[in-house]
């Protein structure tokens, strides 16, 4: 009886949904979550290796370390739209596993490099193959889960990324201590070997358990009835083929512009949490080095709480705008506290930890994007990739202007910029909420199907070469 109630609480009252979701939540969701967790550890491995001997061993000079990160970020950003678009053409299992294994191999061979320029080139290539990790996962999750289910799953996925970033430094500190000199290799080389080896079994797990897209009906662990239910329960799409209308549909849509802009404003607002700002402030107040390293991790703790809390509420409401307004108000309150230069340290801690809860848009706003683009396969794929690419186009230079290390510990200019960008999220939230309500009422967005039919039989399986198109019965 208790287990039955727990199953209903986790997966809903419908028996078909429970049977399907229980399998997805132990296959699809863990795969993406673990890959994103390892992504955080992998990126942290370069900074750990750099300060643990790689700099001297490979002769890094001047800004070469910055060039390494820039090369990675540029290619990562550029490849996100092509990556998500590729998922609409090829079976996702092939795309993800190929990308994961290539990314793992590139990380592994880094330990064999002898010059800084080689690591820079490898990072650029790795950026291309890891670009699919975040946006691709968001796209696939949005293909399997309903509006009332997606936010929580996206939150779980994002939380694993926070845990990876949070624990990456601790794990690598342990590796440095226990493996230094083992096998005649310096500690920094062991970091790349271990991180690479950790990724391979997860990629193989993906090969076995990634169910591709619902329309493929390819998951071996789903019964025929469950495959059919998965392919039909979200409803057929209005548009699901690459044709001459794709770019018109995308470029003339409000979703393609408003959601990425909103997400970009969020990213700019929280830059004080991502540029050692709290650590600089703590150093100026006389906190110990240990405290400077430990206390900022509380931001990730509040990020986890906020992400899960807001995602759960938005799923229960089956609406994202209400929690988005709460997040926007939190942007304003937290930034305003910092702008006011609190008289006590407690004020700063409250502001930093409060702002930590606003990492929730990584789950909530990607879920919102999936909600308002669910009617158009290509629009959702391209917008998913563009949201992160557009974000990167700004965050790559924003800290140089508003959070330069030379301003430490007084980042008042940055705090004011965060107050402004945080405030600007509210009108965008209002506009998106209005357009969502308007277009849903008009039947323009959402999977409403009265006048539509599938070009693929509901009982017909498809492969990566079979287009899946939903077309109107009459010309419109």
Automatic annotation (TrEMBL):
Q: Which SUPFAM superfamilies match?
A: MFS general substrate transporter
Q: Which Gene3D superfamilies match?
A: MFS general substrate transporter like domains
Q: Its domain of life?
A: Eukaryota
Q: Which Pfam families match?
A: MFS_1
Its predominant location is membrane
Which subcellular locations apply to this protein?
A: Membrane
Q: Is Zinc a UniProt keyword of this protein?
A: no
Q: Which GO terms describe its biological process?
A: pantothenate import across plasma membrane
Molecular function, one GO term: pantothenate transmembrane transporter activity
Task: Cite the record's Polar residues compositional bias ranges.
Answer: 464-476
Keyword vocabulary terms for this entry: Membrane, Transmembrane, Transmembrane helix, Transport
Region (Disordered) residue ranges read: 456-476
**Transmembrane domains' residue ranges:** 28-46, 66-87, 117-141, 150-170, 190-210, 256-274, 294-313, 325-343, 349-369, 381-403, 415-435
Q: How does it sit in the membrane?
A: Multi-pass membrane protein
Q: Does the keyword Zinc apply?
A: no
Q: State the name under which the record lists this protein.
A: Pantothenate transporter
The top of its lineage is: Eukaryota, Fungi, Dikarya, Ascomycota, Pezizomycotina
